[in-house]
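Design a sequence for this backbone.
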């Protein structure tokens, strides 16, 4: 069972994954970009926002995804895997970056994932006020420095994309308190965890 936690920067994905993994140490917890040795090198390049070409950026995220699928997801399909980000970030950020076609992005991601999209997606939805509060107290990476309007545009693309794809999903109000969100997620994953 492959479960994806998705949402824009600082929406609270890692906080919730940590709470679940404390209670369920048997779960495989992973992340993109950077869940493999190659991915760690790719992450360094990607988060510095140093590539001039948005196509090159997209392809490097996809290379990370393909390696992550082969090395982490595929060998653990009999277990519960929770990934902090994955293909939905791949589509949402790419659409916000400009001139990419949704269907083409879905095909590229299907290729990277060997046809295996996640079984469930938990998408955190935040707002400008919360985003301002949380980003103002952290050191921002190159992608976060593109600005809060950009991140909210990514969020809209992620929401529209998951609705179009029809993959089972839960929308989480990221502005609620940590314990309330944890309850919503564990209720949704009751038959999975
Ligand atoms: N529900 C919440 N209420 C208040 N603060 C929260 C909540 N969830 C997370 N936070 C705080 O917001 C910050 C960002 O949370 P977290 O690192 O979990 O987000 P993230 O989605 O994993 O971010 P990123 O994608 O940027 O790594 C942290 O300081 C965390 O303690
Ligand atoms: C998988 C993926 C990620 N991104 C962006 C989203 C974030 O800004 C960073 C990852 O940072 P985090 O601390 O691990 O959340 O990368 C993207 O643009 N495209 C993708 O496919």
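Sequence:
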């Amino acid at each position: 069972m492959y479960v994806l936690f998705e949402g824009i920067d600082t929406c609270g994905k890692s906080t919730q994954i940590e709470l679940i993994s404390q209670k369920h140490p048997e779960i495989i917890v992973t992340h993109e970009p950077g869940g493999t040795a190659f991915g760690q090198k790719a992450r360094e390049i990607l988060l510095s926002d140093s590539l001039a070409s948005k196509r090159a950026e997209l392809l490097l995220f996809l290379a990370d995804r393909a390696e992550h699928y082969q090395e982490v997801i595929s060998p653990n399909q009999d277990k519960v895997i929770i990934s902090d980000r994955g293909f939905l970030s791949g589509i949402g950020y790419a659409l916000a970056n400009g001139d990419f076609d949704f269907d083409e992005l879905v095909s590229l991601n299907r290729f990277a994932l060997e046809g295996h999209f996640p079984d469930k997606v938990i998408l955190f939805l935040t707002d400008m006020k919360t985003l301002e509060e949380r980003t103002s107290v952290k050191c921002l990476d190159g992608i976060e420095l593109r600005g809060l309007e950009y991140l909210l545009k990514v969020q809209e693309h992620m929401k529209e994309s998951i609705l179009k794809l029809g993959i089972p999903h839960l929308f989480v109000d990221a502005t609620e308190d940590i314990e309330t969100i944890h309850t919503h997620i564990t209720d949704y994953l009751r038959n999975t965890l």
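Strands lie at 2-6, 28-31, 81-84, 120-125, 169-173.
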